[in-house]
Design goal:
The chain is about 40% helix and about 15% strand. By secondary structure, the chain is of the alpha/beta class. It has a single domain, classed as Metal-dependent hydrolases (TIM Barrel, Alpha-Beta Barrel). The longest helix has 18 residues. The two termini are about 15 Å apart. The site of zinc ion has 6 residues, from loops.
């Protein structure tokens, strides 16, 4: 069996004492690749240190909607510069989060549009974080005529939202939330989404799947997301691992 963790944050503080151990454990178990997500332009430097150290570890570059207020005159140039690096495979994570609103709405909207434009300019897919803002995010993607399919990571929208995203060429990524007992609606959405348009992720250190909910999440736990998806879709877990891995490689253009 093999899996790809399509979204992790391994430079964050919860990994400061055992980061390499966690990554080595993942790669020596069933995890073949890890995609590191980037939240801000300080973090990209730390992400790149990891990508240099591990063959099958890649990174995105971008600014998270929570941190959209950090956007300044040089952000675009900095993102574009990093986008040319070999192990940088996506723009993000970007998007909209109207649940927390850690950055003002207007700024989130502007910074999302800017990063969509960058993704078109450098021909890299988008990693989209979206919470309580699916109509707005989908509308903006349409207006900006996004050409390169990306992924809605840690999907929490409705079936209609998911269908709209698929129409735009986007993939849907499931996190540990899918394993939660109260995620009935999400499980119903997952059932309807073709496996060929599906990715799986941990979003480590967050959103730890059952049976480890409450503990720190790690890339190797992505298999519990795969097991849940297999159960929902009545498939075997090997197939879920294989197809979601192929999808991830296709979206991010990696081998
Ligand atoms: Zn993330």
């Amino acid at each position: 069996m093999s899996f790809i963790d399509s979204h992790a944050h391994l430079v964050l503080e919860p990994f400061q004492n055992d980061r390499d151990k966690v990554i080595n454990e993942a790669f020596s178990s069933e995890i073949t690749h890890i995609i590191q997500s980037c939240d801000n332009l300080d973090e990209i430097k730390q992400n790149l240190v990891l990508t240099e150290k591990y063959n099958n570890l890649y990174s995105s570059v971008g600014i998270h909607p929570h941190e959209a207020s950090l956007w300044d005159d040089v952000s675009k140039i900095t993102i574009l510069e990093h986008s040319k690096k070999e192990k940088v495979i996506a723009i993000g994570e970007t998007g909209l989060d109207f649940f927390y609103n850690y950055s003002p709405k207007e700024i989130q909207l502007k910074v999302f549009r800017e990063q969509i434009k960058i993704s078109k300019e450098c021909s890299l897919p988008l990693i989209i974080h979206c919470r309580d803002a699916f109509n707005e995010a989908l509308q903006i993607l349409k207006e900006e005529k996004t050409e390169i399919p990306g992924v809605f990571h840690c999907f929490t929208g409705s079936l209609d939202n998911a269908k709209e995203a698929l129409k735009l060429g986007f993939y849907i990524s499931w996190s540990g939330i899918l394993t939660f007992k109260n995620a009935k609606d999400l499980k119903e959405v997952a059932q309807e989404i073709p496996l060929e348009k599906t990715l799986i992720e941990t979003d480590s250190p967050f959103l730890t799947p059952i049976p480890f909910r409450g503990k720190r999440n790690e890339p190797k736990f992505v298999k519990y997301v795969a097991e849940e998806l297999a159960k929902i879709k009545n498939l075997n877990v090997e197939e879920v691992g294989q197809i979601t891995s192929e999808n991830t490689k296709k979206v991010f253009n990696i081998n």
